[in-house]
């Protein structure tokens, strides 16, 4: 039992406001089910391989699928970040997440999103775009196919940026339109210029070193095997895994 994951009373109280209301017959104990969902995502297991201490694996999977489709896990992360973030300085970055053979069908799925899986030099991937606060804790995510540029992720996350003084980003975000958009929101960019630029771009090198915190955050997310390797064809299910991972590691 010592290797199993269990949410504490304090953690359950933090998450309880985001649980959907139960209608009709009371649902199975939330602590057992959420503990099993966390265990499966952290260890990259099939649902049928979940320890019996968490109850029937069908219950775990059904709760995971139903709550994921309703956006419950995403709201958990967004709700917890709203009350405890330190947005004076924010950081932006992106990382590749390898798609497993079971998820890597490039056939276009019906619907507006598709599968969000693309082919790059490194193989078949999904790209996760992230914004983090000054402590390197994730604030928001955006997911695209692997071949999509960092500019697309930056444009998608722009409206969700909190009020901040500085934004730290690497050379992949060196674009005039992005700098102008940040300054229009009252945010000063700390982004070095590309090496091909004719004129050097001024930025605070000492402040820029703090950007390593978002790199560390993305590395911590990949410690969970269902995030480091995408097994889910459904982009909603995979995004739920990312949101749940970020919630448990950084916000509980």
UniProtKB/TrEMBL annotation:
GO molecular function: DNA binding; transposase activity
Annotated GO biological process: DNA transposition
Insertion element IS402-like domain residues: 7-77
A Pfam entry, by short name: DDE_Tnp_1
Xref: InterPro entries: IS402-like_dom, Transposase_11
NCBIfam families: transpos_IS5_3
Protein name according to UniProt: IS5 family transposase
